[in-house]
Specification:
mainly alpha; two-stranded antiparallel sheet; 2 domains; Arc Repressor Mutant, subunit A; 2 strands; Four Helix Bundle (Hemerythrin (Met), subunit A); about 230 residues
Length: about 230
Amino acid sequence: MSREKSVAVTDAAIDKIKQMILSGELAPGDRLPKEADLAERLGLSRNSLREAVRALALINVLDVRQGDGTYVTSLEPRLLLDTMSFVLDLHRDDTVLQFFEVRRILEPAATAMATKLMTDQEIDELRVILEALPADPSVEELVANDLQFHARIARGSGNTVLCSFIESLSGPTTRARIWRGLTQEGAMDKTREQHTAIYEAIAARQADVARSWATVHVAGVESWLRRALE
């Protein structure tokens, strides 16, 4: 069998398993039927089925447990996006601006949603994160606090898919944020001031203001990086 035909057969096998999950025939946590039974039922060769299972296991749709069987995972967005996180971590420096462009689209939207949905207790948790930053932080402490601050807001959006996307984008942009903290004068003060403005807008339930400050915050790092790379 040619490589092209083999890939096509595997893709067809993947699609058949996916349809079983989408139809509800296989639910999160379910164990797949025995290989021989499933191959016969789907009209597949056992080799094609194995390739499909291997591919779906790589992207965390299936969990192959040696000596136990193959199971559908929880299918939670965070789990499924782990693969994307791995791919994003392999980015080249000349693509990091594109990650910031996506962050500039997603984070303000998440911040506006969080402003409406976060409970008073969750807003207090955000304040605790904000106040946990030392008066004279190291760059590493600043970036760690920044990641924690934005992750709490993303969770506050109530949208697990959006939250997972934002957390996936955090890794590829971390190096640039550290670089900025080391080289741009006033970067630490700007970060603290903008975080405070975002928090205050969320606490006041001013979604549009929170969205605007989040845009300014992400765009500021993006603009600095664009100038630095030029």
